Amino acid sequence: MQFGPTEVNRHSLIQRQNTSAVGSNRPLFNLIPKLKRAIYGNIDSSSPRFPTSVHDLHSLRPKSPAAIMACRDCLSGTIHTETPTGSEKTIHGFPTYVAEPEAGTTPKGLVVIICDAFGWKISNCRLLADIYAKKGGFLVYVPDFMNGKSPTIICCIPHGEHFLTLNPIGNDMDPGSMGAMERIAKPGSWLTTLVYKPIWILRAIFTTIDFLIKNRVSVCHPRVISFFSSLRTSAPPFQTPNLKIGVAGFCWGGKHAFLLAADKPSSRIQRHSSQHPSSSGIIEPLIDCAFTAHPSFLKVPTDIEAVKIPVSVAVGNVDMAMSARQIVTMKEILEVKNKGDHEVNVMPGAKHGFAIRVDPKDEFQLKCADKAESQAIEWFTRWFAS
């Protein structure tokens, strides 16, 4: 069920929302109690009921970036074990996974995937890039915008009553390691609860803080701008007089997708001489369209109101990274206030991370992931043809 503009008191909601932001700057020490609440279940992320009144929405408080990374769904999921079919290259100075369409097919355009917090090395992003390339007919890049600093998923996770030590992403790693948060949340013996779980929680905290410091927006977004600028000022990677570029951002990457879609004048650039000969000397946007699934770290409504480039959003109504009223506000701004070039697809019951870290054995979440996949491919196909 998608919700429309009549289901809540919009005026009251927006007044409340103007003072809130997912990206509010709260002290990092607030992470500890929030992490404990997320792990031990005081934050209910599984309720199928979607708030339909301002009274319901008022109880849902926006989270700080630290709290977002602390939520169970942000630090959990399943690493997919299929083998990606693309290749690794260095493109404009960035290590990049490259997925290409079927041999003999001229790409419709270029899609750049900005991964979630677990980075470009895990198979999930790469397999999705393969799907976009083959099903959509796109050339797909997955660059390392974290400069090799994606987090260790969980340094130690429970394995019976013992520790199972993992290596950081990029080295050999247990494919089931993303299930650490679920294992922490499960009831255990007194020994596990009183001794092991506090250690696991502290390790998760240190991983989160390290990630937030090393991969904050002020550090990583200049890399994003640099990469897209280089794409625009260089000869296109395939023969075309009008290279179309789209961005797909997931979780952590969703913030960067929204920032690119804001099309700030300072980010505009004069394209390569082979592009748009009739518009020589004109500065133009870095991207043509954007797709994002379960974005995190958004400032609502600021980041949403700034959007100028066509944006498509897939998000669940039980997403722990965005409150219900923030989703309502986003939908209203993009589909009502700025009707025409944007869409927000709200999927009842879809959890944060469903589009990129879905458990293949969870049929419902898998269906949601398939819908998001089709939504992205259709969106890029539409705007690449325009």
Automatic annotation (TrEMBL):
GO MF term (any one): hydrolase activity
Gene3D superfamilies named in the record: alpha/beta hydrolase
Domain annotation Dienelactone hydrolase: ranges: 242-382
UniProt protein name: Dienelactone hydrolase domain-containing protein
Native species: Venustampulla echinocandica
